[in-house]
Amino acid sequence: MTPPPSSTPGVGESLREEWPALDPDARAAAFQRLPASEAEEFFLGLSALGQAQILLRLPERERRLWLRLLAPDDVADVLQEVEPADREGLLQLLDTVTRAEVRALLAYAEDDAGGLMSPRFARVRPDMSVEEAIRYLQRQARDRLETIYYAYVLDAGQRLLGVCSFRELFAASPSSPVREVMEDDPVTIDEDTDQEAVARLFLRYGFLALPVVDAEGRMKGIVTIDDIVDVLQEEATEDVQKYGGMQALDAPYLQTGFGSMIRKRAGWLTLLFLGETLTASAMGYFEDALARAVVLAVFLPLIVSSGGNSGSQASTLIVRAMALGEVKLRDVWLIARREFLAGATLGVILAAVGALRVVLWQAVFGSYGEHAARIALTVGLSVVGVVTLGTLTGSMLPFLIRRCGWDPASASAPFVATVVDVGGVVIYFGVAQLILGGSLL
Amino acid sequence: MTPPPSSTPGVGESLREEWPALDPDARAAAFQRLPASEAEEFFLGLSALGQAQILLRLPERERRLWLRLLAPDDVADVLQEVEPADREGLLQLLDTVTRAEVRALLAYAEDDAGGLMSPRFARVRPDMSVEEAIRYLQRQARDRLETIYYAYVLDAGQRLLGVCSFRELFAASPSSPVREVMEDDPVTIDEDTDQEAVARLFLRYGFLALPVVDAEGRMKGIVTIDDIVDVLQEEATEDVQKYGGMQALDAPYLQTGFGSMIRKRAGWLTLLFLGETLTASAMGYFEDALARAVVLAVFLPLIVSSGGNSGSQASTLIVRAMALGEVKLRDVWLIARREFLAGATLGVILAAVGALRVVLWQAVFGSYGEHAARIALTVGLSVVGVVTLGTLTGSMLPFLIRRCGWDPASASAPFVATVVDVGGVVIYFGVAQLILGGSLL
Predict the structure, then answer these.
(1) Looking at the predicted structure, is the pLDDT value of residue A209 above 60?
(2) How far is A438 from A435, CA to CA, in rounded Å?
(3) Residue B3, pLDDT above cutoff 50
(4) Spatial contact of B163 and A5, defined as CB atoms under 8 Å apart
(5) Which is the most buried residue in B55, B160, B174, B410, by most CB within 10 A?
(6) Does A20 contact B331 at a Cβ distance shorter than 8 Å?
(7) What residues contact residue A60 under an 8 Å CB cut-off, 6+ apart?
(8) How confident is the model at residue A60 (pLDDT cuts 50, 70, 90)?
(9) Domain-ending residue, one of B205, B225, B245
């Protein structure tokens, strides 16, 4: 957590504006031209990737200086961003204690609580008095601790006994033992808890920091809320990109190489294209009907797309509600009923618009000849069917995907649209057969 | 900010699980059955809407008790969730000081810095010594301040002179005046700054709290990072829902009434449907060509949807990058070039798959007669054109929308797909005319 920030705008601010458009070499050069007074704040405000790009391009002496400015968990993040070959060289620039801390952190997966935590937390003993604890914390405040706002009470075996906030110590009677002031059943995180689960804990209660413990209850570090804010942004970005029908990028858009971006996009796009060839197969089946009534083709994109659009709405709602924990797997039947009704209602609204379109065009241009009324009915009924199907598919697909243990965000708008398109073709021609059979067909 | 939390799971935990599925009356009843030891933590963990629902259903005496448990900014949030008619009654349950604070907060728009802030911050004078300041803060720690971790240095006119973190006070020499220890050019937020802009400031530096000042530099309150975490979630949900092609809901999915949900969805859906009727008009124009070559209709959904899918990928990437501040309006030409190339590359990949599909089906089923090669060429070239168009449209639409002063998240997957569909029909039949003119057409 940072000291209260200064607002001096200036060269640093204007560099921040240009930053995304610069290549790594230009960045390092611009960074070295920053006045010393602004460089530190600027450097600390960069992402781990940005810090890594600069560090690797600085002369060794400066590189050491800047690397040592970072807390161990931030150094570990930077090391995740560089090639394995460069990692050891950077580690050698650290002092022995920090190097050991960073190596320990690197053993954790980047997305686990262990990968988020800082090993520098304030510790006190249960039998200290409040007064001693405050004095002890005052000494620790000069070290580079992540936060002094919670003090963790550990026994001789490093096992976590309790926690007290600085504020509680401050308000307590100076002579009481810490043991009596502390909260003795604290919420803890396991070191291998996924970062999304950690973020949900912070969200639920508004914590500032949470302790991370191993299987034996020994305290390993703390996760602070400022890291959680970054996690939330990162997870939201991943979800949104998956939801747009692609693999999530590993870096900001403008910093992702062209080749890597094409790979992330081409995979899903090709799969969806292959899925969509099923519409060509379905249409092939109805080719005779089409030959007899070409007018059917005219409304095809309209009808099919209304299924995709309504499906996209439904899947967005459910995917997001799942990500927020508002909707659980067991709510599936509740949602199915609700979305079936919503789909039918929305379908009727759109069907009225669609049928009106046919009737109007017929009245003004005489576009559809003697069968206009039946065509209007075909379009209307198809839209009700397709929108209901789209809404139901869009809301149920996230449940199915999650049931299979995958990320519900993969129930993307394009995926739902593709699934619904095939069904849409079948519904449309089925309804046409029913209504127009014997007259136009 | 909360004291260190206790982990006792229990009735509260299981109620939390059932919560989303309960109606407001059942919630209030279940809440009143909670043991006192769990009710407080449970209540504080609820959203403002959840707290409002319960409060309105409690007997007046309990209602007063629970309302007074909340900090002024949280009371203001609750009051935003109740009918205006109930607001005054709740205000009357507060003590005079808090009531005045809450009324002041209610004057701010909910989405401004003023609407997020708490008026309860720790204040010190510039001429106090560090020792006096710490003692003074120690007394304030017993009041219900939002945080004591930053002390704000105000002059007699309440103007903000500087800020020092508790930790800096702690590490400084006890006899120095606060004036010498404080950061004297602190980052501040204007009271009418939008909450998204406030969140971006927190994200950039990892602040714990930021002071809010009025136009004359007088300090009005502080915004703390735990409120920002909620803002980020809320804004991400709004963006995702808009991106799915609907108006953002005001409440969690399961707590949104059926009628209100239909209204939020039907508006965009109808607009998109009307936009999509343009495909019917475009198709009407090509009806003669269709009558001569019904096989063209077979590939129509496939080709048109590949444009929608690639457009959805592109708009997701740009909308999210804009929300994160990675991409700015002036990057438009850079992005246009990059996405044009990406679109053409992806188009060629899909075209190869599409042409292969035609050639294979011809070899196996003889589906397309003597013109198979030309049909394959038509499908392939159309896919290149449509995917390039889709990608370019998807990436440029967010810029256009933002340029007009609207939210780029409105460049939703369904919106992009609809715009691209009309263009897709025109490209497809144009290419068909060119390749098949004189043979099949």
Answers:
(1) yes
(2) 8
(3) no
(4) no
(5) B55
(6) yes
(7) A93
(8) confident
(9) B225
Q: If DSSP codes are grouped into helix, strand and coil, which group holds residue B177? A: strand
Q: Does A347 reside within a domain?
A: yes
Residue B232 is nearest to which of A41, A232, A266, comparing CB atoms? A232
- The Cα of A309 is separated from the nearest Cα of chain B by a number of Å equal to 5
Does residue B380 sit in the same domain as residue B413? Answer: yes
Tell which residue, B436, B334, B420, has the closest CA to residue B376. B436
| Residue of A1, A240, A318 with shortest CB distance to B206 | A1
> Mutation test of the interface with chain A: which of B8, B77, B255, B320, choosing the one with the most A Cβ atoms within 10 A?
B320
CB pairs under 8 A between A and B: 410
Residue of A7, A413, A418, A163 whose CA lies nearest to B190: A7
- Ranges of beta strands (E only) in A285-429 are none
Burial (CB < 10 A; 0-12, 13-18, 19+), residue A25, is exposed
Does residue B115 form part of some domain?
Answer: no
Q: Pick from B241, B302, B357: which is nearest to A317 by CB?
A: B241
Tell me what the mean pLDDT of segment B87-100 comes to. Answer: 87
Decide if B240 is inside a domain: no
User: Within this chain, do residues A230 and A263 fall inside the same structural domain, yes or no?
Assistant: no
Tokens 């129509």 sit on residue: B300
Contacts of B228 in chain A (CB under 8 A): 229
Residue B237 within any structural domain of the chain: no
The model's confidence at residue B18, banded by pLDDT at 50, 70 and 90, is confident
Tell me: do A100 and A128 sit in the same domain.
Answer: no
Give the CA dihedral A24, A30, A31, A35, nearest 10 degrees.
Answer: 180
Give tens-digit pLDDT for B373-413.
888 999 999 999 999 999 999 999 999 999 998 888 888 88
Confidence band (pLDDT; 50, 70, 90) for B142?
A: low
Are both B349 and B402 inside the same structural domain?
A: yes
Check whether residue A72 and residue A148 sit in a common domain: no
Domain limit, last residue, from B47, B76, B107: B107
Q: Helix count (H) and strand count (E) of chain B?
A: 20, 6
Residue A410: pLDDT over 70: yes
Select the more confidently predicted residue: B96 or B369: B96
- Interface confidence, given as ipTM, is 0.75
Distance CA A219, CA B429 (A): 68
Task: Judge if A135 and A190 occupy the same domain.
Answer: yes
Q: How many domains does chain B have?
A: 3
Residue B386 is predicted with a pLDDT of 96
Q: Are residues A331 and A375 in the same domain?
A: yes
pLDDT at B1 over 50: no
Average pLDDT over residues A300-304: 89
Q: Please judge whether A2 and B258 are an interchain contact, meaning their C-beta atoms are less than 8 angstroms apart.
A: no
Q: Do B253 and A326 touch (CB under 8 A)?
A: yes
What is the span of the domain harbouring residue B221? Answer: 121-225
CATH number where B78 lies: 1.25.60.10
CATH number at residue A372: 1.10.357.20
B199 and B76 share one domain: no
According to DSSP H, which parts of A34-83 are helical? 36-45, 48-56, 60-68, 72-81
Q: CATH number, domain at A193? A: 3.10.580.10
CB contact under 8 Å between A316 and B342, yes or no, is: no
Q: How far off is chain A from B109, nearest CA to CA, in Å?
A: 23
For the record, the structure tokens of A372 come out as 């206009």
Q: Which residue has the higher pLDDT, A387 or A206?
A: A387
Q: Give residue A3's pLDDT.
A: 47
Q: Do B312 and A225 touch (CB under 8 A)?
A: no
Query: What pairing do the DSSP bridges indicate for beta strands B121-124 and A121-124?
Result: unpaired
List, in sequence order, every beta strand (DSSP E) within B63-124. 121-124
Which residues of chain A lie closer than 8 angstroms to B417, CB-CB?
A: 305, 308-309, 417
How much is the pTM?
A: 0.76
